[in-house]
Write a structure and sequence with these properties.
Blueprint (H helix, E strand, L loop, with lengths): L1 E3 L9 E5 L5 H12 L8 E7 L12 E8 L4 E8 L4 E3 L2 H4 L6
Length: 101
Amino acid sequence: MSHPFSTSARALLQIIWKTTERVAKYDEMIEKSIENNLKLKDRVGTVEVAGREHPSTQDPKLRVSGQLLDKNGIRITSAHWYHDGEVKYSKGRFNDAEGEA
């Protein structure tokens, strides 16, 4: 299921939930995390969320996981969006830009 980004500047961003129903709280969190990240906001075309909210044995905090793809479908990075609002990107350089506008 896809969900277009809500602002006109990012109207082309799609969030696709694979193998599960979308969760509005995470949609909003994903949108804001990309919109507020200088290194991602003009690059990401699609976010593919893989599966339901989950913990892991290494990290018990609830989260969803996904891939951020550019407008050509090429993977930029992956990320975890945590239930408490925290965001962690697999490529550290994107964590450094989080919250910057």
